[in-house]
Specification:
This protein folds into two domains: about 200 residues, Alpha-Beta Complex (Quinone Oxidoreductase, Chain A, domain 1), CATH 3.90.180; about 140 residues, NAD(P)-binding Rossmann-like Domain (Rossmann fold). The chain is α/β, with parallel strands linked by helices. The protein is globular and about 65 Å long. Helix 6 links the parallel strand 12 and strand 13. It is built from eleven helices and 18 strands. About 55% of the residues are buried.
């Protein structure tokens, strides 16, 4: 069938919306008509070249929700008419990591940027003249209709608005889990969250729900600092220096229990600032994406060892999508998770490039593409 989607032809490159030929699903796959797709910074990392991919053209988007229009036989029970959220990370349910409750490290995710199907190296998208098109995370949610592996599909309740549910495909789990799973925030903790976009806003909510007493949001953009209190921040400041001083005031000079770094582009100096802000035996969580070519971080190793500090990488917040996405959306239905407030602007598919310009300008907590 014919569909339309936002692709990148090269990196650095610009998002371009084009007509695409979409194959029908094969065994273990479903076809989904998209209702909405969140605009995550990771797609911009591909446009800038921070994240290299294996196939160009490359169809972007990985945080979406929609309705199944075709479903081949599959072992997840996904059928036509189901309302679903795409998980940015697939989970096979059988590899060592899935079996150990670590679905974000599923062996299938090794090929999430290759563009091809991990089963046989084939493609489901082509340009109008027959050129194969890679799919981000195997799903490509900046596409009106897409064909995706069932390992990336989570069925949800029909009464959840799809334009909000899409955020659970990446931002919510990544931020929430960074606080709850990776930082292991405890009641009474002092927590710093650096960078208040969709993931940072979710990390603030995770820290608040875990019982943190002092939650310090850090962002140079005044608009984002103002929004931070709606997601659980008790304080909002423009710099890590201010946040570190506040944390020490709250902890008799010890420092924050944890610092969660959710900035747009992770840099070595950010890591040093995060580690400097935490107490002895505190945890600094690296959730933000750094350019793949960057190596090293500015950490005073003597203090790091002698203070038994912890530096932790967090992929998708260490969540288990098959159980955590439905659970998070249940919290939304109960009014305990704020998703409506995260969406600051909505865009038509043709305006994807403008949405990312707005992101760079600091106008969005989360932008969302709405499909007809």
């Amino acid at each position: 069938m014919l569909t339309r989607g936002a692709i990148l032809r090269q990196a650095p490159g610009e998002f371009e919306v084009v007509d695409l030929e979409l194959d029908d699903p094969r065994p273990g796959e479903v076809q989904v008509k998209l209702a909405a797709s969140g605009m995550c910074h990771s797609d911009d990392h591909i446009a800038t070249g921070d994240l290299p991919v294996g196939t160009y053209p490359f169809a972007t988007g990985h945080e979406g929700a929609g309705i199944v229009t075709k479903a081949f036989a599959n072992d997840r029970g996904i059928k036509e008419g189901d309302h679903v959220v795409f998980s940015a990370m697939p989970s096979c349910g059988r590899c060592r990591y899935c079996a150990s409750g670590m679905q974000t490290l599923c062996d299938l995710s090794a090929n999430m940027l290759a563009g091809v199907r991990w089963t046989d190296g084939s493609y489901r998208l082509h340009t109008a003249d027959g050129v194969p098109v890679g799919q981000m995370c195997g799903i490509s949610t900046f596409t009106e209709t897409t064909t995706a592996p069932v390992e990336s599909i989570i069925k949800i309740d029909d009464d959840i608005p799809l334009d909000k549910a899409c955020l659970a495909g990446c931002a919510v789990g990544t931020g929430w889990g960074s606080a709850v799973n990776s930082a292991r925030v405890q009641p009474g903790d002092t927590v710093i969250v650096m960078g208040i976009g969709g993931i940072g806003a979710s990390a603030l909510q995770g820290a608040a729900h875990a019982g943190a007493s002092q939650i310090i949001a850090v962002d140079p953009v005044a608009f984002k600092r103002e929004k931070a209190t709606a997601f659980g921040a008790t304080h909002a400041v423009a710099s890590m220096e201010e946040a570190t001083e506040l944390a020490r005031q709250f902890t008799h000079g010890q420092g924050a229990d944890s610092a969660i770094l959710t900035v747009g582009v992770l840099k070595p100096e950010h890591v040093g600032q995060g580690v400097a802000a935490i107490r002895k035996a505190g945890t600094c969580v690296l959730t933000a994406v750094a350019p793949s070519s960057d190596v090293g971080a500015q950490i005073p190793l003597f203090d790091f060892v002698m203070s038994e500090k912890r530096l932790v990488g967090s992929l998708f917040g260490e969540t288990n999508p098959t159980s955590d996405i439905p659970r998070q959306l249940r919290l939304y239905k109960e009014g305990k998770l704020k998703l409506d407030e995260m969406v600051t602007h909505s865009y038509a598919l043709d305006d994807v490039a403008q949405g990312y310009r707005d992101m760079h300008a600091g106008r969005n907590i989360r932008g969302v593409v709405l499909f007809d």
